[in-house]
Amino acid sequence: MACDDIARRLHRGAREFHGLDVGYGEENSEVDELLKRIGAVLAGRHTYEVGAVQERPEFRKPYGGAWSGPVFVLTHKAPKDPSVTFLSGDIRAAVETASRAAGDKYVVVFGADVARQCIEAHLLDDVAIHVVPVLLGDGVRLFSRSGGDAVHLELSRVSRAGQVTNLRLAVVG
């Protein structure tokens, strides 16, 4: 099972993840519907770097290039990339900046650490996970915090598109 950053590369057609061709690109109505509702992306530096080194240019963009719009990357050291707005500092300020850019649409969060910060600050309403049958053998935990309390989620929707299982979970506490 692979989740988190790999989800952004699973729209249509074969997609790469660290050079792997995962090949689970069937039509996915859940992702198609989500793409219409996204107004901005907020990502962490690690997620940005994973995308930036992809060989195929479309894989360097959110959802393999199927979505375009403002992308914000939360980092302490901003590289030079005119296609992205780099932010530093507080997670609340980063979410506020991305929310203003998104208008009445969603801000999608990519990256385990940024998602963790959003959950801890009570800024995340729901979690969308796209599960594919791939064991990567390495990576970042989807959610990790030492000694933290459990975060309770409620399953609100499940759908499948070929080998991809889409999970939508509400953050309830």
Topology:
Elements: E1 16-17, E2 20-21, H1 29-37, E3 38-44, H2 45-52, E4 71-74, E5 85-87, H3 91-102, E6 106-110, H4 112-120, E7 126-131, E8 153-161, E9 164-171
Task: Give me a quick take on this structure.
Helices cover 22% and strands 27% of the residues. The protein contains 4 helices and 9 strands, in the order E-E-H-E-H-E-E-H-E-H-E-E-E.
Mean pLDDT, all residues: 81
What is the alpha-carbon Rg in Å? 15 Å
Task: Tell me the span between the first and last alpha carbons.
Answer: 25 Å
Give the DSSP E fraction (strand runs of 2 or more residues): 25-35%
Q: How helical, in percent, are the residues?
A: 10-25%
The assigned CATH architecture is: 3-Layer(aba) Sandwich
Biggest sheet architecture: 4 strands, parallel
What is the assigned CATH homologous superfamily?
Dihydrofolate Reductase, subunit A
Order of helices and strands: EEHEHEEHEHEEE
General form: globular
CATH topology: Dihydrofolate Reductase, subunit A
Number of strands: 9
Indicate the CATH class.
Alpha Beta
Query: How many discrete structural domains?
Result: 1
Work out the helix count.
Answer: 4
Write structural notes for this entry.
- This protein has 173 residues and is an alpha/beta fold.
- The protein has a single domain (4-171), classed as Dihydrofolate Reductase, subunit A, CATH 3.40.430.
- It contains four helices and nine strands; from the N terminus they run ββαβαββαβαβββ.
- The chain has helices at residues 29-37, 45-52, 91-102, 112-120, and strands at residues 16-17, 20-21, 38-44, 71-74, 85-87, 106-110, 126-131, 153-161, 164-171.
- It has a four-stranded parallel sheet with strand order 5-4-3-6.
- The longest helix is centred in the middle third of the chain and has 12 residues, at 91-102.
- It is globular and about 40 Å long.
- The two termini are 25 Å apart.
- The relative contact order is 0.22.
- The model is unreliable at 1-23 (pLDDT under 50).
